[in-house]
Design a protein that fits this description.
The complex is a heterodimer of chains A (181) and B (577). Chain A has 181 residues and is mainly beta. Chain A has one helix at residues 158-161; strands spanning 3-4, 24-25, 42-43, 48-58, 61-68, 74-81, 87-98, 111-115, 120-121, 147-157, 165-171, 174-179. In chain A, 2% of the residues lie in helices and 42% in strands. Chain A has a 5-stranded antiparallel beta sheet, with no helix packed on it. Chain A has a 3-stranded antiparallel beta sheet with strand order 4-7-10. Among the domains of chain B are: 86-177, Immunoglobulin-like, CATH 2.60.40; 186-232 and 391-546, no CATH class. Chain B contains 6 helices and 33 strands. The chains are: A mainly beta (181), B mainly beta (577).
């Protein structure tokens, strides 16, 4: 639990103070680039509703989180996360809502980010690091239930981040394609 | 990937005392006028807990509690709606991994049966010892089956048996995938050495502290449970199959106590203004005793909370019980003069045992009066007032414990109703400090200072005769290898082996060592926990070996809301309604 103070993203979860095992975390995010007009959104599926809440690219993430040790001493834990050279983190805040009981699971293998040139990227296999920077995060196991709001992370080339991007969920039952920019 | 845990400066015991003294002095210097937390309650015993000058930590606690409870209510309502749909069967159930978002290695499985059935759960382990099994107590048609003890980052094989009243059993095997360990947990490593599988007491190992985490790991060192949220070290893992975790102030200040199950589902929230350090104890099954702080000193308060009402029922300031002014003790002029580190219920009585690290004393006292029955303590520097309570050692092999931790009362060992056997962790920090001749010769370079050591030791106390004898010990010859100056634990396990926990510092690096040893002193199993970060240090305290499914575990009661027992008057004092 920590307080993420990046201003452009949607309000994040409530935080505990440093007296708890928590404190301020700063995440440094790159400014989004200007983009051309995206293609319109597509929605043909009914089992799940995928909503795009916000998105941001970040060339690195860093921050600290405080913990209370056995003797009452508070120490800061420092976190840093960088993508591979030439890449950037694409943080996408989404809502995934199950529409009916018995629906098939929402599988992350069915989710991708596409650019306008036929390239696509899957969600990072392990983006649990988002929680170190206090991004509320949607878990990466299959979603089977309820309302799931939070961030997921893609690692994409910086060059792709500058162009049109789409968040796509596609199954045999239908497709949702949402323009990121 | 960079290391997540920073270099830590580990504070040795004496420095910790000084630090606490400084913190306390600062607190005193900056505190506002005392404001009774609840003047209407006579049970506060004349103590006047104060609101901190900065109330934001408490407010943040309340905010977080609100958020957690609201989220849980939403999840429970959603699960209930799914279950009510009637579309889920044992053959095609709804599996929700980590439904409350705080316990990644758990799941619930929802389904409906035509007739009431009792469900058994089997989580396949990498070997027989690491498998997790439970039979739940409920006989239901609507099932919300908790699944505990999954491995991280893999698809777990989980088998459910559903048995009806005629004894007919239907079986379903599921593959339940979990996320990789999060970055903080992945920073920790547990190495293990199982030497005698035949003697290993089955169960998972629950450290009270694995750095900031609440975790459980198996005999192979694999994490099988953890909470993503960080809590304070004091924990009660034995509250009717649930856990009591604490969040807030270590010394005097706001703390919230959460009763949770391994899913992280909250059953009640309690508030205390007295901080929480070292001990949360289920007392007489329906109350909680805690070690806390109040006023100018720290860690010398025992207090009792009703889990049913959230009321603080009793407090006992141990300055009114024990001798604060023992001249030979390094901590005598410290606010942390006592360092209460354990409270133990004496079965069948209203008495408790208390353990003081800085006074090297274990005392049996009446609760809540504080009347002393006996004291197990080195006989140095006690005033005449207290000497009559000191147990007299018997036997040539007797040696006092120094700066001990975690005493526990053992089941009857000798058939004698006049005796009580206790097992404790003898840290030995000041073991040689009272031998004035030895100290003189060390200073004169006539002898080399003896190697410190810690041990697990069982004493037999003849309460009628006022004597104490050493019955068993382990570790005297392990020397500095397992010397633990500040923390530790010793538990008798169900199969007769002893589980010892050591917080070992070598080259300024703190690691957690857990040993299971036989009565013959043979190592049955051992683990070494460290961090992967640059200095490797890791917090540790006590370890409990137990099944993650305690006897009597029921299905998850999603229709029962959590009890928020934070007193209204407390919320009002912090400007909340």
């Amino acid at each position: 639990m920590a307080d993420r103070r990046t201003s452009r993203l949607a309000p994040l979860r409530a935080v505990l103070a440093a007296a708890l095992a928590s404190c301020a975390v700063l995440a440094s995010c790159a400014a989004p680039s200007a983009t051309p007009t995206p293609a319109p959104d597509v929605r043909t599926e009914t089992d799940w509703t995928l909503t795009l809440l916000s998105h941001e690219s970040a060339d690195d993430l860093s921050g600290t989180k405080a913990a209370v040790l056995y003797d009452g001493q508070k120490v800061d834990t420092t976190y840093a996360q960088k993508p591979e050279s030439g890449n950037t983190f694409l943080l996408v805040e989404i809502g995934v809502v199950k529409n009916k009981a018995g629906a098939a699971a929402f599988r992350w293998a069915d989710v991708r980010v596409e650019d306008g040139s036929g390239n696509s990227w899957s969600r990072m296999a392990n983006d649990t690091f988002l929680e170190n920077f206090n991004f509320p995060r949607v878990k990466s196991t299959d979603l089977t239930f309820g309302t799931n709001d939070g961030f997921i992370c893609f690692e994409i080339p910086k060059s792709a981040a500058a162009g049109p991007l789409y968040l796509v969920h596609e199954t045999a039952a239908g497709m949702t394609r949402l323009a990121l920019r | 990937m960079p290391s997540a845990i920073p270099v830590r400066t580990l504070v040795p015991g004496v420095l910790a005392v000084l630090l606490l003294a400084a913190v306390c002095a600062f607190s005193l210097a900056t505190s506002s006028s005392p404001v009774p937390i609840d003047a209407a309650k006579p049970s506060l015993g004349g103590l006047s807990p104060t609101l901190p000058p900065d109330s934001s930590p408490a407010v943040a606690l309340f905010d977080e509690a609100d958020r957690r409870l609201a989220h849980q209510a939403e999840v429970d309502a959603g699960l209930a709606k799914e279950l009510a749909s009637g579309v889920y069967t044992l053959d095609d159930p709804l599996v929700v991994v980590d439904p409350y978002g705080v316990s990644p290695l758990t799941a619930v499985v929802l389904f409906r049966t035509a007739t009431p059935t009792v469900v058994s759960v089997h989580v396949a382990g990498d070997d027989v010892l690491s498998s997790v099994d439970a039979t739940l107590t409920d006989s239901e048609t609507d099932h919300v089956v908790p699944v505990y003890g999954l491995y991280a980052g893999r698809t777990n094989e989980v088998t459910l048996d559903s048995r009806d009243g005629q004894g007919s059993t239907t079986t379903k095997t599921l593959g339940i995938a979990t996320e990789p360990e999060n970055q903080d947990l992945a920073n920790l490593t547990v190495q293990t050495d199982l030497r005698r599988p035949d003697l290993y007491q089955p169960g998972l190992n629950f450290p009270y502290a694995m750095d900031m985490f609440k975790t459980a790991y198996d005999e192979n060192g694999a994490f099988r449970w953890y909470l993503k949220d960080w809590y304070l070290i004091p924990t009660d893992f034995t509250f009717h199959g649930h856990f009591i975790v604490s969040e807030g102030a270590v010394s005097e200040g706001a703390v919230l106590l959460y009763e949770i199950d391994p899913l992280g589902r909250i059953y009640r929230v309690l508030y205390t203004p007295y901080g929480a350090h070292h001990e949360i104890l289920t007392y007489k099954e329906d109350r909680l005793l805690l070690a806390g702080s109040s006023g100018a000193t720290v860690e010398d308060l025992v207090y009792e909370i009703s889990p049913d009402t959230g009321k603080i029922l009793q407090t006992l300031d141990l300055k009114t019980v024990l001798q604060r002014s023992r001249p030979g003790l390094a901590a005598v002029d410290s606010p942390d003069w006592l360092h209460l580190n354990a409270i133990v219920e004496v079965p069948g009585t209203d008495d408790i045992l208390i353990s003081s690290r800085h006074q090297s004393v274990v005392a049996r006292i009446a609760w809540p009066s504080g009347a002393i029955d006996w004291m197990l303590a080195p006989p140095y520097d006690w005033s005449f007032l207290f000497q009559k309570f000191l147990l007299k050692p018997t036997g040539s092999d007797f040696a006092y414990a120094f700066n001990q931790h975690a005493p526990e009362i053992l089941p009857d060992q000798d058939g004698n109703p006049d005796t009580m056997d206790i097992l404790l962790f003898d840290n030995g920090d000041q073991r040689f400090a009272y031998d004035k001749d030895l100290q003189r010769r060390i200073l004169a370079n006539e002898v080399v200072a003896p190697t410190p050591y810690s041990r697990l030791v069982q004493y037999r106390i003849d309460e009628k005769a006022g004597t104490v004898a050493r019955i068993w010990e382990y570790g005297k010859d392990t020397g500095s290898l397992l010397y633990s100056d500040g923390r530790g634990d010793a538990d008798l396990l169900a199969n007769g082996t002893i589980l010892g926990t050591y917080a070992v510092t070598h080259d300024k690096v703190l690691s957690g060592v857990v040993l299971e040893v036989s009565r013959a002193g043979e190592i049955v199993w051992q683990s070494l926990a460290m961090a992967k970060s640059s200095d490797g240090s890791l917090e540790t305290y006590r370890t409990l070996r137990m099944s993650i499914y305690e006897p009597g575990t029921t299905e998850t009661p999603i229709a029962v809301p959590a009890l928020d027992l934070i007193p209204e008057e407390v919320l009002a004092k912090y400007g909340r309604s």
